Amino acid sequence: xxxxxxxHETGASKSLYRKYNYGDIHFNVAYAIVAGIVDxxxxxxxxxxxxxxxxxxxxxxxxDGDIKTPEH
Length: 72
What we know:
By secondary structure, the chain is an all-alpha fold. It has helices at residues 2-10, 12-22, 25-35, 45-50, 52-63. Helix 3 crosses helix 5 (52-63).
């Protein structure tokens, strides 16, 4: 059992934790908007202006098929 817990703590969950807690916050928010995790209408115009280059990058990546949108 302890081996399975250890695998969980050091596997995918740790990878996700690092991605969203140590990543660039601007990129994480832009990704969430483009991927549809966060409703773009919920983001203020100031925020969207601040992270516009990140949103553009993520949109380009999405158009190229590099960003998958979550299934609802």
